[in-house]
Amino acid sequence: MSPRRNHPHGAHRPAERSQESGVGGAGTEEWQGEEWVVRPIAGAASAKHYRCPGCDQEIPPGVGHVVAWREYDGLDDRRHWHRACWNAKDRRTSKVQRSRNAPRY
Description:
Blueprint: H1 15-21, E1 27-31, E2 34-41, E3 50-51, E4 58-59, E5 65-70, E6 79-81, H2 83-87
Antiparallel strand pairs: 1-2, 2-5, 3-4, 5-6
Protein name: ATP/GTP-binding protein
Organism: Actinacidiphila bryophytorum
């Protein structure tokens, strides 16, 4: 005998729930008085190395992250951020300071 299912066979997750978690698609956030389009990227979807503007460190391929750009800018102005760096953007200073022993890649 199979275990009982808690959802009807073939049912999918509601769209509202996936939007809340940030996995479903792009959303907008206000930051520094401007509207930013924010889109989460799954780790498997990234195939290139990116540099996070929040910490100035590399985002390797296969790591989930966030892509953000100002609403009125073009797609060429997109920036790839670590999720933690994007969430901490208000607590960061304008100039990132690294220690002497920090890697420079």
